Amino acid sequence: MAKSKQTKRKVCLTLVALFVLISCFALTTYALAKHQVAVEDNLFEMARIRIELNDGKTIFDGSDMNIEPGYSIKKDFTIENKSSVNVYYRLYLENVTGSLPAVLNFEIYDGDKLLFSGSAQDLKRENPCVGDEPLEVGETRTLTAVVKMAEGAGNAYQNGDMAFDVTVDAVQAKNNDDKQFE
Fold first, then answer.
1. Whole-angstrom Cα distance, residue 32 to residue 52?
2. pLDDT-derived band at 165, boundaries 50, 70, 90
3. Which of 66, 93, 123, 133 has its CA 20 to 30 A from that of 42?
4. Could you tell me what percent of the chain has a pLDDT over 70?
5. Residue 94 parent element (H or E)
6. pTM listed for this prediction
7. Is 2 strand, coil or helix?
8. Cα-flanking dihedrals φ and ψ of residue 64, to 5°?
C-alpha cells in the first residue's frame, strides 16, 4: 500500500512539474511573439500600390510636336493614387529613340514648383523626377510638363524626331522618409 501511495505521489509531482513547464513555455512564447510584433518603429503595413498616369491617355501624342529651336510645348497631365496607402512617385522616360533627346529640355512642375529640369537624356530611371509630397489615397495631382528645344539646336535637327514612354513608379510613403524606390 505504501508503494502505491509513493507511486501516486510521484505521478502527481511529475504531472505538476510538466504542467508548470508547459505553462512557462507557453508564456515565454507569447511574450517573445508579442515583443517582436510590438517593437515601435518596426511595423510595416501590407498595401496595394497602384498609380494611374493621365487616366491612361497619351500625354504627348505627336500631333503638336512640330518643334523648332527656342519653341516650347506645355502639357498638363495627372497622376492618381489608386493605392490603399499614401505613396511617393517618380517619373522618367524609357525607350527613348530618335535624334532630338540631346536638344529637348524637359521641365516638370507641380503647380509653380519645379520638380525636374534637364534634357530628355537626363530624365531616366537613374535620375527621375520625384514628387516632393506624397500622394494621399485617392488623390489626383495635376503636373505640367514643358518641353523646349535648345535655342542653338540649328538646322541639323530639322525633321528630327523622338519617341519615348513616360513611366511612373510609386512606393509606400509610410516609414520611407528617404523615398527609397528599390
1. 42
2. very high
3. 133
4. 90
5. strand 87-98
6. 0.72
7. helix
8. -115, 25
- CA neighbor of 130 nearest in space, from 176, 85, 84, 82: 176
Distance of CA 93 to the CA centre of its chain: 16
Supply the CATH classification number for the domain 51-172.
2.60.40
Q: Higher-confidence residue: 7 or 75? A: 75
Could you identify the residue written with the cell 520625384? 130
- d(CA 173, CA 45) in angstroms, rounded, equals 11
38 confidence band (pLDDT: 50, 70, 90): very low
The cell 498609380 sits on which residue?
51
Instruction: Tell me the HSE value of 53 on the side-chain side, using a 13 A CA sphere.
Output: 14
Alpha helices in 38-74 (DSSP H): none
Between 141 and 21, the more confident residue is 141
Amino acid type, 118: G
Locate the domains of the chain by residue range. Answer: 1-43, 51-172
Whether pLDDT at 126 is above 90? yes
Q: What is the spatial distance between Cα 23 and Cα 29, in angstroms, rounded to a whole number?
A: 10
